[in-house]
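Appendix B, Record 12. Input sequence as logged:
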Amino acid sequence: MSSEELEKLHEMYRSLYDELKLIPERALTSHGEERKRLVRTFDERQGEAEEVLQGMEEELRGAPSSYRNAMSAKLRLYRRDLGKLQRDIKTAAPGFSSSSQTVQGSHPSIYSSQNQQSTHLQSQRALLLQGTEYLNNASQSIERSQRIAAETDQIGTDIIEELGEQREQLDRTRDRLMNTGENLSRSRKILRAMSRRLMTNKLLLAVIILMELGILGAVIYLKFFRK
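Logged structural output:
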């Protein structure tokens, strides 16, 4: 059971019913050939409506019981409305209605041709509704694709901007590292210079200490050992 198919059949029936319910009132105010034409049109549209209702009944056979019961009640109302319209058209054009029935009973080929025509019209309506649905689905798909493309473009723009910011950060980090490397080189030079000066100072201090020890030894020698 296809809910979409039921919706299509329901729309087709409502369209046919809206056309049928206007015919009895128009037939009351018409005469001659115009009235005959209206009655023929009523017969054709009524046949199409009956076929639509039969199609709805076939679609409902596989439906859940709760949904099928509700729709079956609605179908009974539809058939009751069609019966009322039949009585109205007979009241509006009694002479032609009876002759029309006689003609249909006497010439089944004409009636069969009318049924074929109504079936063709129904098929054309179904194809039109299906084509409209396909167009709507295609339009919705195009709109979704456009939205996705716009979102993708925005995401790409954001990523490019973020990558640009990260590149600037990397450039600044590289500059800081280069400055740090230069500072480290200068620091190493300063440390080497300080190390050389420290060694020089140590050597000078050792020489001074040796000289003082020599002087002290000479003084002690001259004072205590030399007579």
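The domain at 3-156 is CATH 1.20.58.400 (Methane Monooxygenase Hydroxylase; Chain G, domain 1).
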